[in-house]
């Protein structure tokens, strides 16, 4: 699915949606204050879509007026969703208090940055979280959404693949690193917590290839040193990809299935240097202060919740397992470099 918003003139909103099915007629759902008020089909034909091979008829353009949405000129808040995918394609909101910037918070952990997402959400017209889960065509539309000059995007994006959409002239980029041993422990516990889903045929599809990794993790006792060593010695491929230098993989490769070589660590460092705001969770106040100041947000900085004791304990045990050192060697180098840089800048 592809989409674009041509204009919002108050009494008229015009845009287009090209559905995945080239024979289908796209529909846009209109929501006001959380309540669906209209379901409008594309009514205009554009031959460009046919020439590009995107659609069989070119009937992809919709126009919303007071006839389709009663009271449209006077509605301060309107949301438009693609009916087929339920993806938000446009949000009208009062401009007061909005940050007039496009911002990308690059998630590096397996858990989303919910604390920052919640803190920044009220300050933007558009917000998209977990954008790495979107299909490539939809994600490209989100990244290039010129109709949304106030937008907050967040997700574990593979940066080399989309870096051309995240240049400084297009958006503010920020990345928050985690201690690699803490992140490895978090990912291992994440896998074990989903063993039940992996064992249930009605839910295992949600995990994709990680279903095998979750079932595998459930067979090991992470509190036992010998069990930990066997765990890393017997890792199946999906678990290995999840745990082997994930930060380097995210910054230094273009596709999730790409093999990771030492040269990728050099590429990862170069890309990290091009991110606008770089921080570390161990130095969270410095990162949050810099980000909020860049965005012109004056609200108090949220307090980072403590790391769960179980995760901290597992991270300490991992430091005694020689096989883990190789699994995070590239990520440790970047993590230490960022902490040293922050300490030097804030000392």
Q: What do these coordinates show?
A:
With 347 residues, this protein is of the alpha/beta class. The protein has two domains: 92 residues; 253 residues, Rossmann fold, CATH 3.40.50. It has 14 helices and 13 strands. The strands form three sheets. Strands 10-11-9-12-13 form a five-stranded parallel beta sheet. A four-stranded antiparallel beta sheet has the order 1-2-6-5. Strand 10, helix 3 and strand 11 form a beta-alpha-beta unit. Helix 7 crosses helix 9 and helix 10 crosses helix 11. The model has no long low-confidence stretch (mean pLDDT 93).
Biggest pleated-sheet summary:
5 strands, parallel
Distance between the termini: 49 Å
User: Which range best describes the helical content: under 10%, 10-25%, 25-40%, 40-55%, 55-70% or over 70%?
Assistant: 25-40%
Calculate Rg over CA atoms: 23 Å
Strands across the major sheet, in which order? 10-11-9-12-13
Give helix and strand order, one letter per element, not per position.
EEEEEHEEEEHEHEHEHHHHHHHEHHH
In the residues, how many domains can be counted? 2
